[in-house]
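ok posting inputs for the adenosine-5'-triphosphate job
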Amino acid sequence: MSEQKRQEEKYLKMTYQQLLHTQKTLSEWLEETKHSGQSMMSKITEDIKLNVDGISDKLDSFSQIEMKNREIDQYNIKIRNGEITLDKVERLLEKPYFGKIKVDFLDEEEPESFYIGMHGFSDENNDNLIYDWRSPIAELFYNNELGSSSYQVRGNTIETSIEERRQFVIEKDKLLTYFDTMVSIQDDVLLSALAKDDTQKMQDITATIQKEQNVIIRDTSTPYMLVNGVAGSGKTSAIMQRIAYLLYNMQDEITSDDVLILSPNKAFIQYVSDVLPSLGEKNPRNMTLLQFAQNYMGRQIESEETYFKRISKESVSKETTYLRDDQFIHYIKNNVYHEFKKDRLFKDIMYRDKDIISKEQIRQLFDETPQNSPHVDRIQGVKQRLLSGWNQRLIQQSRTKKIHDQVISLTEDQQEKYFGHLIQDDSEKSLTRYAEQLLRKKYKKVTQQINRYRWLNQEVLFHELFEGFSGSIYKRQMSPITLDEAIVLLTIKHFYVERLTMPNMRFVLVDEVQDYTPAQLQFLLLLFPKSDFTMVGDENQAIFNTSTPFKQIKTLFSVDDKEVTTYQLLTSYRSTGAITKAFNELSLSKNATIVPIRPQGVAPQLIKYNQPSEIKEVVANVLSQLDGEKLTVLVKTEHEKEIIETFFDEETQVHVTSINLAKGLEFDNVLLLNASAAHFTTIRDQKILYTAFSRAMNHLFIGYEKSLTPLLAYLEK
Ligand SMILES: Nc1ncnc2c1ncn2[C@@H]1O[C@H](COP(=O)(O)OP(=O)(O)OP(=O)(O)O)[C@@H](O)[C@H]1O
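and the output
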């Protein structure tokens, strides 16, 4: 054994022992503190009870309760922090660290070694045995260079020289192997990480983050970041690592509540849900734009399935094109003084078929609001007056003899139902109070209608603004509404009815950004004017009719002197060399070649069949080559998916899905079906093929009926 290895093993043993020691002391401390906490709690409850029962000076006892509450809070914080630290230590015990750098700070001192792991860890003398991968010094490890290098600490650049960079493969206290950057040119640790089988859940890439990914993870200097990265270049991984990085480095400013992830579909949310918890961080809000819009929309928006079917169509109507135009969003925002035709603008407020407040009355209230105010303020004014007028009406009615008689004649059950107890006092004053309570309950729906703007026909606003912008009449029945309509309706609500209150997001991260319409992006920008946006996507995967070119996204975000920083990722980590080469051929950006990292593997295999009934046979043939491994069958449309699915029962190793819903996901072995001449013809089809191919990690099979699409002719050579 070399001296170096002996030294490394010694360091690992020592660190591991320290970790074990900390684990033991911390667990004991937690147990003890929890135990003494329980007796403290029961004593506190006892004290409080005694005080409240026995002391006449209530103020004094309240301040004591307050003090005790603070004690309990502090106790809970102590326990929580202890548990978090124990969690980290236990994670480190699985794999204490994965990297080391020896840094010369270009001063008189000897070069210093830093070990990099998932979390920071120091011994009882406060010596740092492991540095968190997100700490400033760790940047030097990810820079992946020897000799001159630098890192940033609070905006200052520290120049250094790297003497040594080492990667470790460690399991608990066993040093399996290590590699020095200067010795190995290819990154064996990365290659073995990439050789993994597909997983149901995405995994973190902390130990093998690459230099170009590290820049994206750590760049906090820009408000808007736009990453155009080829398939499998680690965009999603970089987003997740970036969130962990931000939560760590800005822990005094933000928590996971200040972060929003917008994901392409529900399956994808599930797929990435383990990454942050495995890094010791809480998952932030992660939703699709459809879910996000539904949260703020009072009515049903189309389902995810319908949405994907709709955006997978070859063409869109002229009407929809207007709805997707960011200029329409601007138009809505810039017309807030618009006078709408009032004949259909207001609706009666009804209770059981009876007119409670007529539309004429509401219109009059509206006319009394100042004409030179923005529409939203006028509507808010009407709402306030409706609420106070309605309130007055209930109060007046509660004083009448008729309603007092009704209160008195309530059965006991009804009294319980309306008041939660029986009427004990039947004085005039008390009856009035009960009557008011009764009326409020009875007419709850009226108050709700006022609060929910049921008296305002928001579709009229929509139609009139649409006509104003497009010069044409909107004809589609909005039921259920599409996401495109919802985005416009919500924008209208925000500027004309009631401001949408958004949680104050510090960071918004958008995955598959190429699939968003300009209107959707503009809408997000309006709702989150103070947030930093990180947007990642791939123009080659713009397979939906909603897509926006990156150039346009950049222009859209280049507002108020804000800069959009763009990055390009060209290295692909997911697929074998042969599969990467196959989808590189389909890439539309011919001036940049995709660089595969993984070994060549086997070439994609073409399989011809003559009619759909042979598909079962094709699948059986593929399965026989896979030696018991799982196979994912990809098809272009939902319709095909429904048909093909019926060929297999649930137990087989075959999983069928459409390319639309496979976005962002990856599979060991893929069989793409029906890559036939008649089925794939357009540029969009070329992107669909690119997306489908790039889902495969190890094996790609391409089935086609009768003749292969000319888009794949290069595979036959
Ligand atoms: N630095 C890395 N170390 C180890 N694995 C990596 C690294 N970068 C990416 N990967 C792996 O490569 C695969 C693709 O990564 P990811 O899904 O983040 O890429 P993507 O650019 O979002 O892909 P796509 O756009 O095609 O959906 C994943 O399995 C991921 O774990």
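notes: The longest strand covers residues 156-171. The longest helix spans residues 3-54.
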